[in-house]
Amino acid sequence: MILSVRGRLLAREPQVVVDVGAVGLGLHVSARTAALLPALGEELSLVTYLHVREDQLALYGFHSERERALFLLLLGVNGVGPRLALTLLSSAPLEELERALRDGDEAYLVRIPGVGRKTAARLVLELQGKLVAVPPAAAQMDGGAVFEEAMLALASLGLTPRSAREAVDKVDRRALGAAPRVEDIVKAALQSAHR
Q1: Using a CB cutoff of 8 Å and minimum separation of 24, what contacts does 7-12 make?
Q2: Total number of domains in the chain
Q3: Domain ends where: 133, 159, 179?
């Protein structure tokens, strides 16, 4: 089983291609992970999941262990394949998706492309009790989750993933306080990008 890859980013589309020791591995990634990729030619490291079917091997890459864990939980739901699991991860912030699944918020889930009422009900039923709430303080301890969400928000506003990362890296984290909000980071990043 392939649990992670580390190498040089060769391509972003139609799949992410990573050069690992003269072998180019193609990986399917969520929009979240795609937004956090470095520039072409730079080093990256992704945790992975190898999906094996009779007629196909497909490698999926994730920026964080938390994202991969949720992907695997989603795959365990009857009728949810890798494509729908990636759509779910790409269409909602991780914390919101986890909250909706944990709280049984079917109305939130049906707004995600490809998720109908039956699928939403199945997701809630089969994942009930499997998701543990991550306290906001723990999620923001290293600032990772909120800063990742800010990079995704900037990418959705039209910045390239590299520009979004650079803008967030320029933000004065001390000025944001101990528990920064995504909106505050995005605002500060946009101000720093326009200087």
Answers
A1: 7/43, 7/44, 8/41, 8/42, 8/43, 8/44, 9/37, 9/38, 9/39, 9/40, 9/41, 9/42, 9/43, 9/44, 10/40, 10/41, 11/40, 12/37, 12/40
A2: 3
A3: 133
- pLDDT, residue 46, reads 92
Whether the CB-CB separation of 13 and 26 falls below 8 Å is answered with no
In the block, tokens 């998720």 appear at 115
Please count the residues of the chain.
Answer: 195
Q: The pTM is what? A: 0.69
Question: Helix, strand, or coil here: 74?
Answer: helix
- Which residue is listed with tokens 């920064």? 180
The domain containing residue 166 runs over which residues? 137-193
Q: Can you give the pLDDT at residue 177?
A: 74
Burial of 192 (0-12, 13-18, 19+ CB in 10 A): middle
* Regions of the chain where pLDDT drops below 50: 134-142
pLDDT the model gives residue 144: 62
